[in-house]
Amino acid sequence: MPNPTLADVALRANVSLATVDRVLNDRSGVSDRTRARVLSAATDIGYLETGTATLAPVRLAFVLPEGTNAFVHELARHVTEQSGLMEQVSASVERVTGFDPVALAEKIAALRSEVDGIAMLAVDHPIVREAVRSLVADGKAVTTIGSDVRTVDHLGYIGIDDMQAGRLAGYLIGRLTGAESRREEHPGKVAFFAGSLSYRGHQEREMGFRQILREEFGGLTIAAHREVQDSRALAETEMEAILREHPDIVAVYNAGGGTAGIAAVLERTGRAEDITFIAHDLTDGNTSFLLRGTLDAVIDQNARHEVREALTTLVHAVRGTAYRMVPPRLQIVFRENLPSG
């Protein structure tokens, strides 16, 4: 059969495409009997070479920023756990100085000869865009995870719609702060935090947030705007300063990391009860803040799902097989709908 596909293997073995994918990537959840049938079918139709019944190793790297961002640490943990279930796939986690485009560009250039594909939490900067273009031109598989870069042809972005996430945060704050938020004659002050606006994702969250406040909640104004480099310590210092300058603040939206620092100040000053607080990513720490009532809601993007999609997308690209990426689902988590397990 000329140029057999995964669909051809699935048809020959009488199993689903998902089962074929699990077998060829040595994932769990498939019986030995089914695994043998899939490998036999793949060999029979020429998808795998006779006598190998396996695929060539794939070397991947996930380039993530250093720092205290709990979501980034979760990404790294899932890379190690999930790639460990794929025997033909090795994936390393490479750290770079957070928000430094030169360091990121140098790191991915240095990895060029060592890996077949790279996933990165990307700073949107001309130096980074050019480095990505060079990798793609060299035949490397590249995808972004968590934050994208503009005008660069790569496999795609794996992450949430950040503009929608920012609008959602604004909508939640507008509704939770009550009817006064709609009345411009009684303005309420809001604090906005970002990790760094060098991340396209954080830029878009702010854009969406400002957009919906302007459209629907004219009584709310952004009185304080801080970039805290996803640092808990810096977020804590800035939140203390904001409360001194604006003691009448009614809400906080943190579009990046450092949530623990903001929460610590709200709890220490007794303001957790009267300040609406929205943040991102259902980490263990944020779960605790939800349970204590310090956080009102978390906008979650599922680190495990994003890593799985990044691994699968890169592996299929390296091996020249088709795969349709499944984007993560934006989810609002309150104390009352915390997922179990």
Structure commentary:
- It is a single chain.
- 43% of the residues lie in helices and 18% in strands.
- By secondary structure, it is of the alpha/beta class.
- It has three domains: 6-44, no CATH class; 58-159 and 303-328, Rossmann fold (3-Layer(aba) Sandwich); 162-300, Rossmann fold, CATH 3.40.50.2300.
- A six-stranded mixed β-sheet has the order 7-6-8-9-10-11, with helices on both faces. It has a five-stranded parallel β-sheet with strand order 2-1-3-4-5, sandwiched between helices.
- α10 links the parallel β8 (249-254) and β9 (276-280).
- α5 (101-110) runs parallel beside α6.
- The radius of gyration is 23 Å and the shape is elongated.
- Residues 4-47 form the HTH lacI-type domain.
- Keywords: DNA-binding, Transcription, Transcription regulation.
- This is HTH-type transcriptional regulator DegA.
Key features?
12 helices, 341 residues, 11 strands, Rossmann fold, single chain, 6-stranded mixed beta sheet, alpha/beta, 5-stranded parallel beta sheet
Q: For the largest beta sheet, what order do the strands appear in spatially?
A: 7-6-8-9-10-11
What is the residue-averaged pLDDT?
92
Provide the CATH topology of the largest domain: Rossmann fold
**Which residues sit in consecutive blocks of at least 5 with pLDDT less than 50?**
none
